[in-house]
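worker-3 :: picked GFA family protein
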Amino acid sequence: MSERSGRCLCGAVHFTLTREPLATRICWCRDCQHLAANGSVNLMVDSDALQITGEVKGYVKTADSGNQITRQFCPACGTQLFARSSARPQFAVVRAGNLDDPSSIRPTMNIWASSAPKWACLDPQLERIEQQPQPPKAPAAAT
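worker-3 :: tokens ->
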């Protein structure tokens, strides 16, 4: 894989992904719908594979599960960039629309499909998970 890069709308925050995403999904939870006014395409990555330059601010909300979800955004333009869960600090979520080349990834599943509005266009070729899926397994270490 070549590195993937991205930025916020104003360019004050840049990021680089140094490894392949562990999962790429369209999330239909109500929080993502509030953030994106639609489903949100997200990459789940190893936290240490995400390099960020520039200042980000965070907003913390308690999820239905009781986990603390920190959503990170650019304080200058408000672009939603990343999310992290207190239950899974080894992972970070990256909003795919902020990649320099969003076509370099392809979602493989719809998650929280039970929360999608009736008008949502869910690709029937993608795996459908009604709520939160199990976390992805980290790839085996190279030997």
